[in-house]
Write a structure and sequence with these properties.
Elements: H1 20-44, H2 53-58, H3 65-86, H4 98-108, H5 111-124, E1 129-133, E2 139-143, E3 158-161, H6 168-171, H7 175-182, H8 188-201
Antiparallel strand pairs: 1-2, 1-3
């Protein structure tokens, strides 16, 4: 049975980006719903219960058609949100250092140019979706709860949720204001650890 991951901060700890009310609904309602529906889908298809979340997502195309949508959509929602919480910290913000800074500067020329490009991609997502920084420096987007894993790419090192439920209580339709404030809580230490893991795996 999949469960919500434990948060390392309180609901109101990221208040300079999102309110405790938003965190409560986002984590306790929206993310919980993906976990519950994933478990229900696996109960209905027990032959896939022994697979990891990553294995399910990497092999969505091989699942029977009747199981594919409920498993992959909800596995993606669980995966994306679990990563999203890790990408933020009450002690976040500022600029990255070390290998992450080198990756960004080599690819985009400066941290600000990277922020501008990432923000442009985030604002360009039509409807609901996600924005990711990949270990090779690519910035990509996916619709709904699709993940990089399900399209044959590596696990991302940074992600941003641009579904309306991520910001509507606090910012209404101002996605741009939400994105601007989100940079103040990005946990670059966490991003660095995922980049290090990706580098060791290659």
């Amino acid at each position: 049975m999949y469960k919500l991951p434990n948060l390392t901060y309180n609901y109101d700890a990221l208040s300079r980006c999102m309110s405790g009310e938003t965190m409560s609904y986002h984590y306790g309602k929206h993310h919980q719903a993906y976990v519950d529906k994933l478990n229900a889908a696996l109960d209905a298809n027990p032959e896939f219960k022994d697979r990891t979340l990553e294995d399910l997502l990497c092999n969505c195309a091989t699942l029977p058609e009747s199981a594919r949508k409920p498993i992959c959509n909800n596995a993606g929602g669980h995966y994306n949100h679990s990563l999203f919480w890790l990408c933020m910290s009450p002690n976040g913000g500022g600029e990255p250092t070390g290998d992450v800074a080198n990756l960004i500067n080599n690819r985009y020329g400066s941290f600000q140019k990277f922020v501008d490009e990432f923000t442009t991609k985030a604002l360009g997502v039509f409807g609901s979706g996600w924005v990711y920084l990949q270990p090779n420096g690519d910035i990509i987007t996916t619709p709904n709860q699709d993940t990089p894993l399900s399209i044959g790419l590596e696990a991302p090192i940074l992600c941003l949720d641009v579904w309306e439920h991520a910001y509507y209580l606090d910012y209404k339709n101002k996605r741009d204001d939400f994105i601007k404030s989100w940079w103040s809580v990005v946990d670059w230490n966490s991003v660095s650890e995922r980049l290090k893991t990706a580098s060791n795996d290659n």
